[in-house]
Amino acid sequence: MMEILNVSEKGDTLRFMTKSNEETLFLLIKTYLESDSSVDVVGVYKEHYLVDKTEFFVKVKKGDAKSVFLKALADIKKDLELKKVK
Q: Can you tell me the distance from the alpha carbon of 28 to that of 30, in angstroms, rounded to the nearest whole number?
């Protein structure tokens, strides 16, 4: 389950939290977003390893943070499909 905590009026900031231990997945997404020139700040925050809540934050210099996030997910999916064992 994901809870959107904040989307700025301009759409340049997206912050959400999952109620599960998704830190590893978000670190992968963070790696992809860090290489995007439109991303200003990206971060993953986990209060404690025993707490099943992970927060994700992305702020973009230009464009829409949600679109940039979804593009990173699409890029990850494409890369994983290319590496499938057949």
A: 5
Contact criterion met (CB below 8 Å) for 20 and 1: yes
CA atoms of 9 and 61, how far apart (whole Å): 14
| pTM of structure | 0.82
Instruction: Specify the pLDDT at position 1.
Output: 67
58-61 LR contacts (CB < 8 Å, sep 24+):
58/13, 58/14, 58/15, 58/33, 59/12, 59/13, 59/14, 60/12, 60/13, 61/12, 61/37
Please report which helix (H) or strand (E) contains residue 2, including its range: strand 2-7
CATH number of 2-82: 3.30.1360.10
